[in-house]
Structures are given as structure tokens and as C-alpha cells.
Specification:
The protein is mostly helical and 138 residues long. The protein has a domain at 88-138. 72% of the residues lie in helices and 4% in strands. It is built from four helices and two strands, in the order H-H-H-E-E-H. It has helices spanning 3-20, 31-60, 65-87, 106-134; strands at residues 90-92, 96-98. Strands 1-2 form a two-stranded antiparallel sheet. The longest helix has 30 residues, at 31-60. It starts with a helix and ends with a helix.
């Protein structure tokens, strides 16, 4: 099988499998379970950021650049996501809309939210595939 196709299918299948559980839910999720799952997801993302992105990036550098460059990149990523969150209108289940006024429908806002959510993950997968394809393995 083509290695690029394999690399693309792994996150696709993981996302599809993870999101398929919504079909088994018959009613609202209890608040405690929702908090537990959100905390777990947050911990996984922080761990992935630190151990799979920051530590390898620091290991690639030398001297003060080893820490400064990844720190600047991390802070730039934070700023970019905060900017996107600020300029994008969104809806909360309780409390109504937030952000700038928009003529977008609820469906368009949902599609925009999914796109924004997947943007960093898609970039990470793309960088990983590019790195694997250009690596000089001996």
C-alpha cells in the first residue's frame, strides 16, 4: 500500500472510530461523565503537544535556540488559535451566540467549527508525512 495513503488513513480511521460512539448515545451525557471525558481529552492533547512536538523540537536544536524557537512557535500557535476563536462567531448550547455578529446559518457555523478544530491536527499530520517522505533513512 502507498505509504502516503497509509499515513492519511490512520488519523482518518481514528477520527471516524472515535466519533462513531455518538451513535450509541440515546440521551444526554451526565455532567460528571462529560467533565471526565473533557479532562481526559485535554490531558491527551497536552501530552501529545509536549512529548510529540515540543521535546523533539527542543532535541533538534542547540544552545538557546533549542528552547527559544519551539517556545516562539508554541506561543504563535496559541495566538493564532485565540485570534481564530475571537473573530469567528460561535454558538453555545446555553447562553446563545458569542463573537462578532454573523449572517452564517447554524450549519455553516458548525462546519466552520469543525474546520477550525481540525486545522492544527491536519497541519501536524501533513508535517509528519512530509518529514517521513523527505527523511534520509540509511
Amino acid at each position: 500500500m502507498n505509504p502516503v495513503l497509509t499515513a492519511l488513513m490512520i488519523p482518518f480511521l481514528g477520527t471516524a472510530l472515535g466519533s462513531a460512539f455518538v451513535f450509541f448515545m440515546k440521551k444526554d451525557m451526565p455532567d460528571l461523565l462529560q467533565k471526565i471525558l473533557l479532562g481526559f481529552a485535554s490531558g491527551v492533547m497536552v501530552a501529545a503537544s509536549v512529548w510529540s512536538l515540543l521535546i523533539p523540537a527542543i532535541g533538534m536544536g542547540t544552545g538557546t535556540k533549542a528552547v527559544v524557537s519551539p517556545t516562539i512557535g508554541l506561543l504563535a500557535g496559541f495566538a493564532f488559535l485565540l485570534l481564530i476563536d475571537y473573530i469567528t462567531p460561535h454558538i453555545h448550547p446555553v447562553g446563545g451566540p458569542e463573537g462578532p455578529e454573523s449572517r452564517l446559518s447554524r450549519t455553516a457555523k458548525l462546519a466552520l467549527a469543525v474546520t477550525i478544530h481540525n486545522f492544527p491536527e491536519g497541519m501536524a499530520v501533513g508535517v509528519a508525512i512530509a518529514g517521513a517522505l523527505t527523511a534520509d533513512f540509511h
